[in-house]
């Protein structure tokens, strides 16, 4: 074969040509621009349109942001400073209102000398949440706990926390960090008692109240231990009864007696002093923590074979989903007096939390029902084939998969609920968005200031909600079990 | 042969109510039923005792008393001398107006944004992502307040449009004026007014409106008949007759004829003294609420549309191309029907959310159902229980009607399996 070539072809190249550089149109930035911005006539028009939008936004808002004033005591002073610095007719933002009134937006009318208490509460919340939210990654947990510790402790120092409480917070944060490094399950007891501690830190009063609330379930557990050898069902009923009876009949008196013997109380703060993001976060965190279990129960009830249970849960879910949250909040503020025994009344924040919780739980139930329905029937059948009873099957096989499928929906419900906490303004509570801004504008110094508070409050809402949605994406990736 | 008679029916013992799976669910349901009934009885009993203590009764007679307050926007004639019932109906109609307008606008904007997010254009897709994230992650109340503040604080007062040296001008060829109190829109005028149909209770419909509705519905029915005929011809002969011009004609020609017959024209608002007259002055509370609901819901709809389109696998469009379908036919025959199936159920709940969120109208003083029945009427009569129960039931019925209607639509587009 090669002989023929040798005879007929004068020259055969036996080395490769060096590869040439790609044409300019097909490489680097030009190629990227051509493909992503100018791929065709419509694409080019869209690019020009987009550029016009960006230019319009920048041209409208740039000098307003650039001319912002952070140091003034009234809107008029702000305007005077802007005119003095950038000439007549200049526009500028007056973020001085945030500098002046940040405490109202964050803490409402909480006593100034006690600002460290909510700060510590939400700092310790991270310790309680870390083992639940970031159970898989030691690194993330370490970073978050260290940041929390530094921020919380320095904020407490700045806000003038007493030394004893500083040491307490430092101990808890340090213990949390230590437990997170060594054995994450050590953190869980703190997560369990945190709700009671948090309520005590925020509202103050006697520590004996939360202690005796905690004693109830402990007594119930003891009753269960004693009776579980006789009959599991009897034991469960007894545990529930003992807990409820203790709470209803004994806990209140026991707490006041114990307080008389050994006072253990910090300054009490009434609910009407709550406001701003303190209120939003309190309602939001409580609603999130309570609505998930309630939603799971409702979803399971709706999938149940028992006719009565199923219909009750359908009626409940569809009723709650059919009415606006505002009307439920009005029920909480106006109608609860009708439904409770004459003369009883309880805290407005608690009522709002209950309403927000059942509202979110109805949506949560539908989201989780979607997850349950998406599970292949074979999973249920496999659980039956293994001989698991209903609760074991749900706990070990069905719910872990169904909840994993519904993570995006669950987190959207949380985000929606957190945004909806602003609606408490319509029942007279001081949400950061409307009531607090109105309260600030009611002062003569800040009359007529609109945009800066909106940007500040909206920015914080954005950070929290966007953070939650990113967390749900992280969780989805982490729990992904299929191979792609 | 084993004798199974002995084990078939063991004698009933009381403990089987708890331990036997066949009876346990029954026991449980009976207990739950008793508990629920007890709770209901407790609530009703408390309510009766509380009403007695307050010296109130539970009756809806207040609905027929004189309302005595004014409503700025009244779709049906209403004066302060009318009853609370009529005021509530006006409120309900106002809720429906903002909900319907919001649903339409949010769908249009949401589809545009959702499709744009999938665009290959880097800049435009990023801009739409920013839009969606910003609107989804901040409370709706914030957007209502911001847009309302833009209208009331930044826009000029009506008298800024006056005189030769006016500081503000009207937009859209002098047909629309944006002021800080209302948006002045042109109205429709008729040179050949056919009069109105009186439905009683001072509710009237112009015959021209009825004629247009009849023309549109009739045109739509004829169009369906034309399409059925074309399908029939295609099934028999294999070639489909061109029908687009027929469809267009039956949809548009009757309306054009009616416009010509009634002499329909736009009457732009004109400045008389300090205010615009002649046109339709839409209060800023409605415009701000509508815009805020539209933008907020559009962000959610955009995500739904995007997810729906992404859910149709690439193989579907490739298969359609392989069959020789052109891109627009691929879109309308292959991709859209499958995407709609994913899009419609969450879209229904967005419409429901928008309708329920319209109750935030209270923040800008728009008199919707909550503003009339649950607001002024409640405060004037002091009938909290009746007013709130009635308001909740109305919203509930509204939600159920919307979801029922959309479920019918969903049943038509969803996958027909066997």
User: Number of folding domains of chain B?
Assistant: 2
Q: Estimate the mean pLDDT confidence of chain B.
A: 85
Q: Biggest sheet of chain B: strands, sense, closure?
A: 3 strands, antiparallel
Low-confidence stretches of chain B: none
CA-CA gap between termini of chain B: 45 Å
Helical amount of chain B: 55-70%
Structural class of chain A: mainly alpha
Nearest-angstrom radius of gyration of chain B? 29 Å
Note the overall shape of chain B. globular
Low-confidence segments of chain A: none
Average pLDDT of chain A works out at 87
Ends apart, CA distance between termini of chain A: 49 Å
Largest beta-sheet characterization of chain A: 2 strands, antiparallel
CATH homology superfamily name of the largest domain in chain B = MetI-like
**Number of distinct helices of chain B:** 13
Return the CATH architecture of the largest domain in chain B. Answer: Orthogonal Bundle
CATH class of the largest domain in chain B: Mainly Alpha
Main sheet of chain A: which strands, in order across? Answer: 1-2
Number of extended strands of chain A: 2
Taken in chain order, the helices and strands of chain A follow as HHHHHHHHHEHHEHHHHHHHHH
